[in-house]
Structures are given as C-alpha cells and as structure tokens.
Design brief:
173 residues, 13% strand, N-acylneuraminate cytidylyltransferase activity, HAD-like_sf, Rossmann fold, alpha/beta, six-stranded parallel beta sheet, 3-deoxy-D-manno-octulosonate 8-phosphate phosphatase (KDO 8-P phosphatase), 6 strands
Length: 173
C-alpha cells in the first residue's frame, strides 16, 4: 500500500465521483432501466467520519438517481451535484461556496469526464482501475479499485495526517 505524497494537513475538502469511484464501474440495471449501484460500507464509514470532523465533502456525479442522493445525504454530505454534465463547473461552485483554494481540495475520479477537475484540484486521485488518461493526471493512484475501498483509502490517509483518525467520533455512526 502506498501513501499520498502531499501535505494532507492542507486538505479542507474532498470531492468524489460516484460511478467507478464510490461504486464499481459495472452496475446492474433495474428492470425499469434505472442504474443500480453497489456501495462500499468502509467508504461510507470514512466519509461520514470526515464530515463529523469538519471536512467538506462533495459528490460530483453524472448520475441522477435518488438512491445516490439518499445514500450520501445519509452520510452527512451536504454538497451533492447530481446530473453533473460538466464537472468543472460544479467543482468551481463547491470551491467558491466555501472560499477554498485548489490546493485545499482532493478530488477522486476515474474517467474522462473527471479530467478537468483532476487537472485543476490540488490533489488529484483515482482508483487503481481508472482510465489511463486519469491515471496520468493523478498525483495518487489508490491500490483499491473503484467501489472497493478507494474512497476509504484516501479519506483515511487525510484523517490520519490531520490527527482525526481513531479518536472521539470514530466509534459511532
């Protein structure tokens, strides 16, 4: 397992794509045609803990399903950009809303629609099964695939670097 080569104490916010990052890249389709997603429980634990510790967390996804909204609102995420067709616009909205600098933001994406954000944010990250172009633009490539703990990997490293892992809020949901 590798570690992120970045001053993680600078990170005030994290933003994530969903499909291919917080859920696997292959998803079942409901008979109605709605895409269904699997989520990783350890990713969810880490995200809610980050929120409890005051880190800003955003979801920036092209997906539009209500299940995604319910999942991440349930984890305490307040900034949800669903149906994001041009992700850099929503990234900039999130950044400006909280007066953040690019250097204070970690973004994790896996495919071409994520590239502009990855090329702009301070800490571009991706899962191990990301597209080659995304890997080339990322400062950190997780050892975990999308949907299988890559979110937990980066959140845990940030919280540990900031002294916020395994203390206080860690033992409750």
């Amino acid at each position: 397992m590798s570690t992120i080569n970045y001053d993680l104490k600078k990170i005030k916010a994290m933003a994530f794509d969903v499909d291919g990052v917080l859920s696997p890249e292959t998803i079942p389709l409901h008979p109605s045609g709605e895409p269904m997603r699997c989520v990783n429980i350890k990713d969810g634990y880490a995200i809610q803990l980050a929120v409890k510790h005051g880190l800003l967390v955003a979801i920036i996804t092209g997906g539009r399903t209500n299940a995604v909204r319910v999942r991440f609102e349930g984890l305490g995420v307040k900034d949800l950009y669903l149906g994001s067709s041009i992700k850099i616009n929503d990234y900039n909205d999130f950044k400006n809303k909280y007066n953040l600098t690019d250097e204070e933001i970690l973004f994790m994406g896996d495919d071409i629609p994520d590239l502009e954000v990855l090329q702009t944010c301070g800490l571009p990250c991706c899962p191990s099964d990301a597209a080659p172009e995304v890997k080339a633009a990322s400062m950190y490539i997780s050892h975990k695939n999308g949907g299988y703990g890559c979110g937990r990997d980066v959140v845990e490293q940030v919280l540990k670097a900031q002294g916020k892992w395994m203390n206080g809020e860690a033992f409750g949901w």
